[in-house]
Amino acid sequence: MPSPTDIRKGRVIVYQSAPHLVLEMLHRTQGRQAGFVQTTLRNLESGSTTTTKFRSTDNVEFLHTNTVSLEYSYHDADGYHFMDTESYEDTLLGEVLIGDDKQFLVEGNSYDVLLIEGKAIRLQLPASVEATVIEAPDAVRGDTASNVQKPVTIASGMVVQVPLFIKKDEVIRVSTADGSYLGRA
Description:
The structure is a single chain. The chain is mainly β. Helices cover 2% and strands 51% of the residues.
């Protein structure tokens, strides 16, 4: 059985009988006491985050993970459909699994999906996505005093603040971290 010193950022472990992704890991020693590993874990089923310590005598169970790149196809009542571009196999991700990330899903774009023992468990967004502007109000003349922005709607329905020169049907890049405008694509 692996020891807690084998824990690394990005690995998936079983903690309290649920899969947890290791977000942060720090090995600590305190004077004459035995060392321990302090971790920040995200529960992949509920999405909650917890901080916990593992002593060197504890046992840790690692799960076999695999990341595949899948193309987002469409959304229906069953959930979000992703297609493997090599085998054309359809993978269905539920509404709970996608959560707030649905605003960054653009049909035809590829996304990384984390698989644990063949079952899709988490969608990993890229740093930015390219999306088409479907609705953009006209800029008001004289509104150019300093870094004035206007709200536009992208294909997923998300509203993004952009500079005044962005027009309908343009493709822009949007940050998945905070939903901000990064530039034209």
